[in-house]
Automatic annotation (TrEMBL):
Species in which this protein is naturally found: Yoonia vestfoldensis SKA53
Pfam family, any one: DUF2125
Protein name per its UniProtKB record: DUF2125 domain-containing protein
Length: 530
């Protein structure tokens, strides 16, 4: 997400941990750097918009900054002095300090000037670089430098509707050093966004509303470090992401506090946003604890979307055209993996309700392929068809939350509840499984009677039908016997089960319908089994 300039200096996970197989303290250092990056990345979210016709003053813009920075606590912002000279307000020695859990984060921003332009807009100027320092209770200190080149920030609008316009040639976040006890860890660890543009808006009414939408032409990622206290061990990684587009909307109370506020989402706060990306490429080489591994990963377009409030949680993502090649000392040959797409979605209600609310869940793993050398490990005689494998499962339905899931006061009751939701309907929206020449597809829907918790205890009594079509299963079982993975006499039981629950509809084609009636009977292809 983003919160104006405030999030530009707050931690936001951007890079996955690298070098988990290194020394334990190294892992902590890298995770600390990852924590620091949260939102330092997001100064890019103060992006360009058309100048409004209304007027805004330098003082009003600075007041808006202070109001937004207040979400991190009433004492988080410190200022040396505020000097107004002519049409320019200069705020000196600006710093932001936050303490979360055992870590203190301090961003020393330095001087910021707000110059009125004579056309109703204000130009904001700040230092080209500033440090962010993290310190934990054990005394470990990590310093990250934020560097921006060609930064242009113009603000327009009115005091309660402020529009920010920002562009920059580059925005770089880089690890400067980590000092822990008697050793200093350093190396090249950085992420650089190139050619940033977009818009950011701050609106104030009954709630504070923040929105941004922006684009980054490309992002360069670099990791090149020697593992401390480990001779000859290293981690190197390089990556490039093309066409990053971001957007977000945030609503919060005027006096909302983000840090150390357990009731954050019960006070009306809501967040939604996400990003889309174009093609990305990565290469890596890791030597840790005597094991060396190198390779490359590439992906096509991707997206991520999130929504969270006291009422609902929604999270979805999808990436296409994934290809990976890994060479490792632990394997005698390169490992090659490909996917045409992988994705997920989750959408659930969170607020206690008198009526059932919609929910959904889905996963997608499409056209998984591996190299022939991997297939040969368990199928050296090429018995199994080596078609791409796919798993797609989708569910949707209606359920009534019995608790306010985001309310800390109800957390214990939720944890102790056998069923925090009252289930009303479930529909199988997608079932597509294909592996080694066999396929499974299906659809179905069930409703649930919550007045009867006995017949199918602990679930409410369902009513509905599930239809499944299976192709190539007998052939797959025969192939497993041919390969010697399963003895022939052990295939009798599964074939008998197929005969009981499925009927033949063609050459190695089976169909099964499972039905649950209103009086609790369970039928398989019309035959009662319960």
């Amino acid at each position: 997400m983003g919160n104006s300039f405030a999030d530009a200096i707050l931690p936001w996970p951007v890079l996955e941990d690298v070098g988990r197989r290194g020394k334990p303290r190294t892992e902590g250092i890298l995770m600390t750097f990852r924590t620091t990056l949260r939102g330092a990345v997001c100064l890019a979210a103060l992006l360009t918009a058309n100048t409004a016709l209304a007027e805004v003053t330098a003082q009003q813009v600075w007041d808006d900054w202070k109001a937004q920075l207040s979400v991190y606590g009433p004492n988080s912002l410190s200022v040396g002095a505020e000097d107004m000279a002519g049409d320019t307000l200069t705020v000196r020695d600006v710093a932001l300090t936050m303490t979360e859990d055992d870590v203190t984060i301090r961003a020393t921003i330095g001087d910021v000037s707000f110059a009125e332009q004579g056309n109703g807009s204000v130009r904001v100027t700040m230092q080209d670089s500033f440090p962010i320092v993290l310190t934990d209770r054990q005394g470990m200190t990590a310093t990250v430098l934020v560097t921006q080149t060609g930064l242009e920030m113009t603000v327009s609008g009115t005091s309660d509707a402020i529009d920010y316009a920002v562009s920059a040639n580059s925005y770089r976040i880089a690890l400067d050093s980590v000092v822990d006890g008697d050793f200093t860890f350093d190396g090249d660890v950085s992420m650089t966004g190139n050619r940033l543009t977009g818009s950011y808006t701050s609106r104030q009414g009954d709630m504070r509303e923040l929105t941004y939408a922006g684009a980054v032409e490309s992002v360069d990622i670099l990791v090149d470090v020697q593992i401390p206290q480990a001779a000859g061990e290293y981690i190197t990684l390089g990556g490039k992401i093309n066409g990053l587009n971001m957007q977000a909307e945030i609503k919060m109370p005027l006096d909302g506090v983000m840090i150390n506020d357990n009731d954050y989402f019960t006070n009306g706060t809501s967040m939604s946003g996400g990003y889309t990306v174009g093609k990305s490429d990565y290469v890596f080489d890791v030597n840790a604890e005597g094991d060396q591994m190198a390779g490359s990963v590439s992906a096509g377009s991707g997206m991520l979307a999130t929504q969270i409030s006291a009422d609902r949680l929604a999270y979805s993502g999808r990436t296409t055209d994934v290809a990976a090649t890994i060479v490792s000392a632990a394997a005698p040959f390169p490992v090659e993996i490909g996917l045409s797409a992988y994705g997920f979605n989750l959408d659930i209600p969170l607020a206690a309700s008198e009526t059932a609310q919609p929910f959904a869940f889905g996963i997608e793993l499409a056209d998984l392929t591996v190299s022939d050398m991997i297939w040969s490990l368990f199928d050296p005689t090429n018995v199994l068809p080596r078609d791409p494998a796919t798993i797609k499962i989708g569910l949707a339905g209606l359920a009534r939350p019995l608790f306010d899931m985001m309310d800390p006061a109800q957390e214990e009751a939720v944890m102790n509840s056998d069923m925090p939701f009252e289930l009303s309907e479930v529909t199988l929206t997608d079932l597509d499984i294909a592996v080694a020449g066999a396929t499974v597809t299906g659809d179905g829907a069930f409703s649930f009677d919550n007045s009867d918790m006995v017949t199918f205890a602990p679930l409410p009594r369902p009513e509905g039908a599930l239809r499944v079509q299976i192709n190539g299963l007998n052939g797959l079982l025969d192939n497993l016997v041919t390969m010697g993975l399963v003895p022939a006499d052990q295939m009798m039981a599964p074939r008998m089960m197929m005969g009981m629950f499925a009927r033949s509809t063609g050459d190695d084609q089976l169909e099964s319908q499972l039905e649950i009636t209103g009086d609790g009977q369970v039928l398989a292809n019309g035959q009662r089994i319960r």
